[in-house]
Amino acid sequence: MELLLMIDAAKRASAKSVVAVIPYFGWARQDRKDKPRVSIGAKLVADLLSVAGIDRLITMDLHADQIQGFFNIPVDHLYASAVFLPYIQSLQLENLVIATPDVGGSKRASTFSKYLGVPLVLCNKSREKANEVASMQIIGDVEGKNVVLIDDIVDTAGTITKAANIMLEAGAQSVRAIASHCVMSDPASFRVQESALTEMVFTDSIPYAKKCPKVKQLSIADMFAETIKRVMNNESISSQYII
């Protein structure tokens, strides 16, 4: 609501243009009606922002790329891979494999594995209800490997920690996890700390109170600052995209 009021105030003050910078589009998981009597929250918020008067949106790692189509204005969709890939390379891990904790994230993880030139491992999960994983199977070989799990959002950390524990049991040498957005609802911090994860790396799109020593955050400030500068100067932002 505060953002909508600020947009309205800027428009009423005769602003030439209003660009909304929202690193974490928090309604992105409500992108479709997947059961009766639920709201498509992502579409509703897109409409609210448009009606309030934004001329452009800059965001990062939407849960579903098609959310860009909910807007009738330009959407600059940045990727956290711009900060994650250099970090992974700096670790200089031997026998590296990229993994995804669920099949739905296979496209995202596949782009990482192709860029780094390493194998891809999948986890197939089933849920009994929201935020609770009933079972999980590994598709691929992790024995003796250093595994990096790739995800976009970690909420209660049930999926990511279960995947890490299963991979260590399957013979992985180490398991790390990388995710764009640090929601970390309780009991996520406890789960990460007690899991097989060596570290859990996020961007700082969402502030995190240091409850878990395994959690590390990488800054996206430079990436967004450069993008904003290019947008304001009417320059191409293509160079901001790694994946």
Q: What does this protein structure show overall?
A:
- Helices cover 31% and strands 26% of the residues.
- It has 243 residues and is of the alpha/beta class.
- The chain folds into two domains: 1-78, 3-Layer(aba) Sandwich (Rossmann fold), CATH 3.40.50.2020; 80-219, Rossmann fold, CATH 3.40.50.
- The strands form two sheets. A seven-stranded mixed sheet has the order 6-5-4-7-8-9-10, with helices on both faces. A three-stranded parallel sheet has the order 1-2-3, with helices on one face.
- The mean pLDDT is 91.
- It is an enzyme of class 2 (transferase).
- Keywords: ATP-binding, Kinase, Magnesium, Metal-binding, Nucleotide biosynthesis, Nucleotide-binding, Transferase.
What tags apply to this protein structure?
single chain, Rossmann fold, 2 domains, seven-stranded mixed β-sheet, globular, nucleotide-binding, ribose phosphate diphosphokinase activity
Task: Briefly say what this structure is.
The chain is an alpha/beta fold and 243 residues long.
- Spans of at least 5 consecutive residues whose pLDDT stays below 50 are none
Amino-to-carboxy terminus distance:
32 Å
Oligomerization state: single chain
**CATH class division of the largest domain:** Alpha Beta
Report the CATH topology name of the largest domain. Rossmann fold
Please tell me the CATH architecture of the largest domain by its name.
3-Layer(aba) Sandwich
Radius of gyration: 19 Å
For the residues shown, what is the average pLDDT?
A: 91
* C-alpha geometry: globular
**Largest sheet geometry:** 7 strands, mixed
Structural class: alpha/beta
- Give the strand order of the largest sheet, numbering strands 1, 2, ... along the chain: 6-5-4-7-8-9-10
Number of E-state strands = 10
Approximate helicity band: 25-40%
